[in-house]
Amino acid sequence: MTDETSLYYRLGGLETVKFLAKTLVQRAMLNPTIGHVWDNRTQQEVQDEIAGFVEFLGEHWGGPHTYTGPDMATAHRGMGITEEYWTALFDEIVTPAYAEFNLPEREAKEIDDFLRSFKPVVVGSPSFKDVIKDHPDMDIMAGMESVGVHWPAASAAVGS
Ligand code: HEM
Asked: In terms of C-beta density within 10 A (0-12 exposed, 13-18 middle, 19 or more buried), how is residue 69 classed?
């Protein structure tokens, strides 16, 4: 839906969504608990990630966007994101941003509910490198599922 009452337009449209995406990713990169995830990412990869995040949020929040990237399970499979990382993301980055940027309670709650809904397909995947270490003979191109590591469990699947 692209009507003017969608979250996207209530937030102020593209400029606000871009600002949020850019700021959250930058703060995640600088965070002591999760920043290492981006240690060896190139400029282009980070810029593409932010651009994809904008499209993703824009589409889901009712803006004129089409997200063409991978679904959230695929985007995070093998990244090794733990509960600790998740807690750091929300407690140290996302939640403080609502007050800092003066987001009204209604919009802050909608954003929070939305982002948190992806927890089952973001948290808990083993790191792909660890899977390979545990299964040195595995065919990398056949993926972790080829050695019986299925993530997420089918019951945890949520939308893309
Ligand atoms: C601690 C938690 C998280 C970490 C460390 C993390 C990290 C990352 C990284 C490094 C990428 C880039 C993957 C690549 O370029 O191949 C990525 C992609 C992505 N993440 Fe997360 N993420 C987290 C949580 C979330 C949450 C809660 C959302 C909200 C739904 C989200 C949305 C996305 C999207 C949309 C992409 C794909 C962008 C694209 O490829 O177009 N992430 N994430």
From this structure: middle
pLDDT band at residue 3 using 50, 70 and 90 as cut-offs: very low
Map residue 64 onto helix, strand or coil.
coil
Among the atoms of ligand 1, which is closest to the Cα of residue 69? 41
Q: Which residues contact 121 (CB under 8 A, 6 or more apart)?
A: 71, 72, 73, 76, 152, 156, 157, 158
**Counting atoms of ligand 1 from 1, which one is nearest the CA of 123?**
2
CA separation for the pair 143, 138 (Å, rounded)? 8
Domains along the sequence of the chain with CATH: 7-156 (1.10.490.10)
Give the SS3 label for residue 107: helix
**Rg value, the chain, Cα:** 17
**Ligand 1 neighbourhood includes 81 CB (under 6 angstroms):** yes
- Find the 75 Cα to ligand 1 centroid distance in Å: 6
Report the nearest-CA residue for atom 23 of ligand 1: 122
Tens of pLDDT, residue by residue over 80-126, are: 999 999 999 999 999 999 999 999 999 999 999 999 999 999 999 99
Q: Which residue is listed with tokens 């595995």?
A: 138
Higher pLDDT, 140 or 154: 140
